[in-house]
Amino acid sequence: MLARLLSSSKRSFFSLSEQEILALAISSEEDDARIYLAYADQLRAQYPKSAKVFEDMAEVEHTHRNQLIEMHRQRFGERIPLIRREHVRGFYDRKPDWLRANQSLEQIRAEAETMEQGAFRFYTEAIQRTSDASTRKLLGDLALAEQGHEEIASMLIERHTPEDVKEEENESARRQFVLTYVQPGLAGLMDGSVSTLAPIFAAAFATGDTWQTFLVGLSASVGAGISMGFTEAAHDDGKLSGRGSPMKRGLASGIMTALGGLGHTLPYLIPHFWTATATAAAIVFFELWAIAFIQNKYMDTPFLRAAMQVVLGGSLVLAAGILIGNG
């Protein structure tokens, strides 16, 4: 409801005058240039070739902005109306800078493509809705300029990021993803899945009470998640190791640790003991094989070796818990 009220306060695109359309084009070019420069700053340290692409694209946007300002001077004088995309209904809402700061390289490339396509559609739609000859010519020139942006963007990408550079940068992005999210998350999942097996199944077979077993599993999973999360975040700030934000790594480790234990804890909400235990055991089976799969996919561990390490180790812990519970 609030979003509808806010959008109703915006101008309709079809209510804009020729001068306002030109002013909107000028402000849009300024915004896009600023966004491209922000992307360049974000990428420069890790992806210098892609950063150069966005610097050159920003320069292109500045060039077209200057051309648009000159057009405005010729037709309407020096005073440019203040109108931006967020003032007009139907425009794609771009995220603010602080929400774009953590985008991946592929997300940034996709966002740039969306920006160029959106600008072209803006001018194309304006042409279709305008009957005045001079306005149609003006909008047609702007549409051709935006179409040229796409061609220039393609040319710049080919110049600065040929396939071998793209592969290198994509591999660097993948490596960073593994270090920041997969590695601590996998360690947490292994710890949460394996280390909670013994206390949960020992409690189950010792008490025969599904509710008490659930409470034991819940406390073990949440406690392990908190402990692993804080440990991961505190022991390495990521500056020298290059493993990324300690907050992100801590969250990945803590959440996956808790989920690893909760997977075979939640079945004990089922009141029937053997049904709950059989369900929990089946979930343990899938958890252990999922860990082996993740190790093989992201950590380049041979699948059979990962399976032997995780599945065999987990099975031994599970058996120990059952034996202790029956003791």
From TrEMBL:
The keyword Transmembrane helix applies. Signal peptide: none annotated. The chain crosses the membrane at residues 276-294, 306-325. GO terms for cellular component: endomembrane system. The keyword Transmembrane applies. It is a multi-pass membrane protein. InterPro entries: Ccc1_fam, Ferritin-like, Ferritin-like_SF, Rr_diiron-bd_dom, UCP035918_rubreryth/DUF125. One of its GO terms (biological process) is intracellular manganese ion homeostasis. Its main location: membrane. It is found in: Endomembrane system. Residues 20-156 form the Rubrerythrin diiron-binding domain. One of its GO terms (molecular function) is metal ion binding. Keywords: Membrane, Transmembrane, Transmembrane helix. This is Membrane protein. It comes from Ciceribacter naphthalenivorans.
